[in-house]
Design a protein that fits this description.
This protein is mostly helical. The protein has 10 helices and no strands. Helix 3 (about 60-90) runs antiparallel to helix 8.
Length: about 270
């Protein structure tokens, strides 16, 4: 078998695997849309939740999730961007850089419950922030930084060195070359990292149970003053996110089932 045949076979296998992945994705999205679109309810998306009874919605929980996501990205993205630029463009290959990368890997391996307990002890209790959106956003920053930093670093490293050399040869400073040439070329990869980290933050529940709280107090969506206790923009109010709400509703259902069908232990 000559090299051309091997290349054609390998290319065909790769295309087949890609087609399988795309087919699975199309199947999942199609199944969700076909089974879900007929049951879409605007009332469900725009009404408040109800405890222990049917008929409620996810308005407050959905907004809290989006608000917490935006606040987390506002805090974590500048830090991750600076760290990624340093590790990719400025950091020398020595023990200090290896220590930073090791710390990032260790931080990314922490369970979300550990991050939540850390945020509860430090921000909720020690810094007296209480159960609040701000405490949850800071805790999720520790949870989000490793993935976002590595995504930005790898996106910057994927830019060919020829573009850096071209900018320097034109008399641009190193910082101007990074911001004017390297960063725009790496922007698609950076956006992909932001989307991945946003999905991770949006679906997080364990860390927010101990920091953002498990309640969604009634707020005024017409009050735009973030310093008002009743404002929906107040970052110091407790906020139950959609993921926490789903966990809470599931827990309430299990609790009710156990109360309705108690287990009686019989002696031997």
């Amino acid at each position: 078998m000559n090299s051309k045949t091997v290349n054609n076979v390998a290319t065909s296998v790769i295309y087949l695997l890609v087609a399988a992945v795309v087919g699975i994705l199309v199947f999942l999205l199609g199944y969700i849309l076909i089974t879900g679109v007929p049951h879409v309810s605007i009332h469900f998306l725009t009404s408040a939740a109800q405890s222990f009874r049917a008929g409620g919605g996810i308005r407050d929980q959905l907004f809290n999730s989006l608000y917490l996501l935006v606040l987390t990205l506002i805090i974590s993205f500048p830090i991750a961007l600076g760290s990624g630029i340093y590790l990719s463009e400025y950091a020398p290959n020595n023990w200090f850089t290896s220590l930073i990368r090791t710390a990032i890997e260790v931080l990314s391996s922490l369970p979300s419950v550990v991050v939540g307990l850390f945020g509860y002890l430090l921000f909720v209790i020690r810094f007296n922030l209480g159960f609040s959106i701000l405490a949850g956003a800071i805790a999720l920053t520790f949870f989000n930084l490793p993935l976002l930093t590595r995504s930005i670093e790898e996106s910057l490293e994927d830019v060919p060195d020829l573009q850096r050399e071209a900018g320097l040869s034109l008399g641009l400073s190193r910082w101007k070359t990074i911001t004017g040439i390297v960063f725009p070329a790496a922007l698609p990869g950076i956006l992909t990292g932001i989307i991945l980290s946003a999905g991770r933050v949006f679906g997080e529940a364990a860390a927010l149970i101990y920091t953002a709280g498990q309640s969604a107090p009634t707020v005024s969506y017409s009050n735009w003053n973030p310093f008002s206790a009743a404002s929906f923009l107040n970052p110091m109010r407790p906020a139950e996110t959609l993921a926490v709400h789903i966990w809470k509703v599931n827990t309430e259902g299990v609790t009710q089932m156990h109360c309705k069908f108690p287990v009686v232990l019989q002696p031997f």
